[in-house]
Amino acid sequence: MLPYKVVFTCGAGVLTLAFGMLPAIFEAPPLAAVAITGVFAAVCVLIADRLVHGSRLTRGWSYKVKVLATRFIAAGATVFVAAVLVLQLIGIRWWAVWLMGLAATVLVETGVAAALEYYWFRLQPKVKPEPEPKPENSVGAAAPSGVTAVSHEVVRTAGSAVTVLERADLQLDHTQLLFKRALTEAGFGWLAQQGYKPIHDFGAKFQVQVPPERLALAGSDTSKASLPTSAAEPIAIALAHLMRMPLQSKWVNIRKEPAAGAYSISVVTQDVTGRLYPYEDCLEWASLRDPARVGFGLDTEPVFLPLRQHGQHIGQTRSGKSSLINTLIAYITRCRDAVLWVCGTEKLYDLVMGWLEIYLGTDFDLPFDWVANGPQDTVDMLCAAMSVARYRQSQPLSQRTAWPTVIVLMDEASFALRNKSVRGVYNGQSYYAAQMGAMIGQGAGSGEVFLHYATQRDTNDQLGDQGGDLQAQAGFTTAFRIKDLATIGRLMGDYKLEVPRHKGEFWLDDGDGNYPQLVKAPYIQEVDPTKDKLHSGLTLSDVAWARRNFVRRLDAGSAAAAGPKYAARHTRYTPAFQAYLTGAPCIAPARAVGPSEPLKPTTPAAPAGQTEPLTGGAGGGLAVAVAVEASPEAVARLAQMAGVDLTKMSAAEQAGFATTVAEVEQQYGSFDAFLQAQTGTAAATPSPAPQYAPPQYTPHPAAKTRADRIVEIVADADTQPVRRAVILAALRADGDPVTSEPSFQNGLAKLVDTGLLIKVDTGLYATPDRHDSRETA
């Protein structure tokens, strides 16, 4: 591979040859050939100047070398123009002599370029020896304390360091020299630059190092040998003055690097966090042990966050917390080693509707393993999570496996945590939500159970009377826009940080002891028609539907420890589930414990024929002794509903499972009565979704269903295939409002699955008898 200096020089010689022979080939005037060559050479010099100063190839060159290289290129171009002029003066009949002279010129310029490259980059510059320091003042040197002598030594050492830095500045390019001057004007000129990385075409990320000589000057005041985050303001002011353009304070971000005395300073000239980053999905399995990408930093690089820890999301309403939470949900729901539980008392439907509506009327597993709505079901979910953790922690090492991690996501947590009137049962005792949240934070992590909660304020009173314990156990923290200016300082430990201004912009403390980082979360377009459409990329329904084959289940032992409420949860999105989430008068399928007050733990005498009372298993969910045994039929039915295999459970697990069923039968009289009270039916069947009509439109019993009408519309069309929009318009013209387009799209997909329609292309459908197609859905 030829060096670039040979290629460019030979190319210039070929162009000179072509321009010089113009009069002989096209009978052009000699002066025209010289003029054309001169103009073209000037254009090439201007282009070369831009390339030398902005190309990636010359990124490591110093500014002085770039200037000298540009001058050499201009001199070479002048020589080639002179060669054309010589040819016109001596006459075209001497073209052979002129051609040999031109070849010699190319060889000479190539040799000069090689020599300059060796001199500039490979030959070490000579360094003049430092002059010997002058002898110190005899009076000062004779001071008994020696303070004066030490001071002179410090000044001499610092002066030597300054000389070295000045010599190193000769190797800095224009960008580094500009930044060096800004640091000097801001009072941080003592920092040593270690290079930089461009941030596209609107910024740079500089690496700086505290020199050891600075420690000698700082003395005992170590703050003078560090770079605080508050230094971003004076640096931004200095850069704005030098660049003749306004800069926001947050456009300069200082971050401590792991190495001692090392910092990175990111500088941008655009509002990067004000940009919109559409979410890009991945359709491959992931692991919760790998950090999740939660957004992009000021340098536009991806930012990652480990999720196997407790965490909190703080920010006022409409600050963009949901954009980050949806991004985390999208990652967790494709992790093969994690299940997601979602709970809340207020606005829960707003969070989950985009993930669930697309599954209405289908028989696919939902992205969430369990969704609990309302104060009672929320505290019961927390009790179940703690029971799962205690069950796992009580297992011998020989019986432990790679349990799936349980992430409990509590939205608008303050409503549930401040409520002390609603209680759940854990280990036979009564607890309210704040107590259970604190217990999970303090003792569930080793059982692979973690609590992530979102709330609008960070003060302890907003998190109940256990708010201090709850916040103390939070591993990661995200702080969004909020009116309380001190919130960012309390959460991030730095009161100099600015409050985020844009939706989806937040400060991140990843829990690893790193400096807080300003991040912009990607945005998944919501399907709520009342929300603005910010981009035409993926919607929540698109991402949710892509999760239909990412099936993750809780292990059998943990499912049993979670209790009957977990067993009776909704696993298909039906109109009843929708009514439960929206707050309509519908009995939720998770009222297994009974009233808000728990059962009192008792220890009755064992009946005849029974040596000891049946006690709870290791899960600890309902460790209440009972005086009667559970019926085997009820135990088998509950196991079927929970999707667990009793034969694969240990003796302790089976005992705990039977205890739960026995307690329910003792309270309700029978297991069928329990099911009747909770779900309105005594049939303990699994939960495949029944074929409901969409709730927005209930046809007359004598009328045709929506599916029949869709097939009829396509069959009666004059031409096939028929567009989806045409089918939708025909349905609405026939009186069907079709207010839920995801439900309509699911209906089309089911018709394709059953063979009544053929999907010819995206949004195009036909009947099998009128269109032959090799494509099947």
From TrEMBL:
Q: Which residues cross the membrane?
A: 7-26, 32-52, 72-90, 96-121
Q: What is this protein called?
A: DNA segregation ATPase FtsK/SpoIIIE, S-DNA-T family
- Annotated InterPro entries: P-loop_NTPase
Region of interest: Disordered: 594-614
In terms of superkingdom, the source organism counts as Bacteria
Q: Does the keyword S-adenosyl-L-methionine apply?
A: no
Q: Which species is listed as the source?
A: Amycolatopsis saalfeldensis
Q: Which UniProt keywords apply?
A: Membrane, Transmembrane, Transmembrane helix
